[in-house]
Amino acid sequence: MNPLILPEHSSAHPTPVIVALDFDNAEATLQFVRQLNPEQCQVKIGKELFTATGRSLAESLIHQGFKLFLDLKYHDIPNTVASACKVAADMGVWMVDMHASGGRRMMEAAVEAVAGYAHKPLLIGVTVLTSMDEADAREVGIVKPIAEQVVDLATLAKSSGLDGVVCSAMEAAPLRAALGQEFLLVTPGIRLPNAQNNDDQRRIMTPQDALTAGSSYLVMGRPVTQAADPVAVIRDVNAVAAQLQGTSGL
Ligand SMILES: O=c1ccn([C@@H]2O[C@H](COP(=O)(O)O)[C@@H](O)[C@H]2O)c(=O)[nH]1
């Protein structure tokens, strides 16, 4: 096993797991969440569940003690994104994201909008979706290799004041080298070593490889929600993280 150089912020989040609650209704979500422990994972609400349930389920999860990542990937004019981030801060979300390609003024407006909050949400910039490969990127006008595009967008996000980025774990090592240990790397596209297929994801890594490469958080949807034993998957990932951190367990 490769040695892991721990980012300084890692002690603040003893579990790297963010479970993507990609369900289409509140009942199924709450039934699934009943087995989860907020000490052992964070949770994420994305476009599907938020469209179905809105703010009430998000607030219910926060009241249950979960750190909530509101993954709505804002991409709009600065005033609109800043205002949305302020609402997210009022709700008490832990992390919220926006497309870094929305530009510096958009990201700086978001940073300014939440600056006054005692518990301000972590602001995260989406770089290049983990579902995209090089051919997909070319088709939407990204002329650089994805790895370069991700580093460039992450550099812009950091200099605009964001706390971190969403990227593939495949880009984690170059991002750590370019942007240091404190910058958060939130990595979806996680697949277990025994996965039968990658679904719609293209830039994937296993939990162990992602953590070793420098990921701060692993976003895991189907590998957890469709597992026979979701709690066991989370426990195993936490055990890998603890082992890499050289501690005895979470
Ligand atoms: O680049 C991105 C950004 C966000 N996501 C989200 O993460 C989860 C991944 O789910 P899996 O089932 O583990 O593939 C999902 O909610 C996406 O919306 C991403 O995959 N890639």
TrEMBL record:
Subunit composition and interactions: Homodimer.
EC number: 4.1.1.23
Function: Catalyzes the decarboxylation of orotidine 5'-monophosphate (OMP) to uridine 5'-monophosphate (UMP).
Keywords, alphabetical: Decarboxylase, Lyase, Pyrimidine biosynthesis
Protein name: Orotidine 5'-phosphate decarboxylase
Superkingdom to which the source organism belongs: Bacteria
Annotated pathway: Pyrimidine metabolism; UMP biosynthesis via de novo pathway; UMP from orotate: step 2/2
Signal peptide: none
Keyword Lyase annotated: yes
SMART domains recorded: OMPdecase (SM00934)
Pfam families for the chain: OMPdecase
Residue sites binding substrate per the record: 22, 44, 71-80, 130, 191, 201, 221-222
GO molecular function annotation: orotidine-5'-phosphate decarboxylase activity
EC class name: lyase
Catalyzed reactions: orotidine 5'-phosphate + H(+) = UMP + CO2
Domain Orotidine 5'-phosphate decarboxylase: 16-237
Organism, as annotated: Vitreoscilla massiliensis
InterPro entries: Aldolase_TIM, OMPdecase, OMPdecase_AS, OMPdecase_bac, OMPdeCOase_dom, RibuloseP-bd_barrel
The family this protein is said to belong to: Belongs to the OMP decarboxylase family. Type 1 subfamily.
Keyword check for Lyase: yes
Record: active site: 73
PROSITE patterns membership: OMPDECASE (PS00156)
